[in-house]
Specification:
alpha+beta, about 100 residues, 4-stranded antiparallel beta sheet
Length: about 100
């Protein structure tokens, strides 16, 4: 079964603050109020897209989801490479799990 591998690199092109914002909006973030009284979760793009994070900056996704992820990363100025790959059984199993 075919999938897409997305490799992205943003370090050095953006400030630490900008990189944090990209990661929060890509993966989601748990936050709380200053006193810790209220806790909530801000959803990230990948919480609604089946994916497998192999290592930092390397993702496997279904071909139909690849453009959305690539466009998102490029909107933050990340350098992005994408290739079609043959998925392993483990990859397919993880991508078939319901995101979120």
């Amino acid at each position: 079964m075919q999938g897409e591998i997305i490799v992205y690199h943003a370090h050095g092109k953006m400030s630490h603050q900008e990189l944090n914002k990209l990661c929060q909006r890509l993966y989601g973030q748990d936050t709380s109020s200053h006193g810790g009284q209220y806790r909530y979760h801000r959803r990230g793009l990948l919480e609604d897209i089946p994916h497998r994070k192999l290592i930092r900056g390397v993702l496997l996704v279904w071909p139909e989801d690849a453009k959305l992820v690539v466009d998102f990363l490029r909107s933050y100025g990340a350098e992005v490479f994408m290739r079609e790959v043959q998925l392993t059984e483990e990859d397919v199993s993880m991508l078939r799990k319901k995101p979120g």
